[in-house]
Write a structure and sequence with these properties.
It is a single chain. By secondary structure, this protein is mostly helical. The protein has one domain. It contains 3 helices and no strands. It starts with a helix and ends with a helix. The chain crosses the membrane at residues 32-55, 67-94. Keywords: Membrane, Transmembrane, Transmembrane helix.
Length: 96
């Protein structure tokens, strides 16, 4: 949050032409996307590891354990993809 406040405060303080502002906002958008990837990917991997450990402790069949892990990985990938897609759409103003 402090990064966002600093960025918008500085962009308001140093007013330039529209093309320069657009370039800086593109850099900001790319930086934000990379920041999300660097923060979210390790979190999701750690979550997968914990779920993997927990599933193997359950008293169910081996095939059921494998299916549970695969479904969890697929659901998190789908949710992460749509969340990132929605972030890009709303950030650049393409959302309906």
């Amino acid at each position: 949050m402090s990064f966002l406040a600093f960025f918008f405060g500085m962009s308001r303080y140093f007013r330039t032409s529209d093309s320069v502002n657009r370039d800086y906002f593109d850099v900001f958008g790319n930086g934000l996307a990379i920041f999300y990837l660097l923060m979210v990917v390790p979190f999701v991997v750690a979550l997968w590891v914990q779920v993997y450990k927990g599933v193997w402790r359950l008293d169910i069949g081996k095939i059921s354990k494998i299916i549970m892990v695969v479904l969890f990985v697929l659901v998190t990938l789908v949710v992460a993809f749509f969340g990132f897609y929605a972030h890009i759409l709303f950030y650049y103003g393409f959302a309906p």
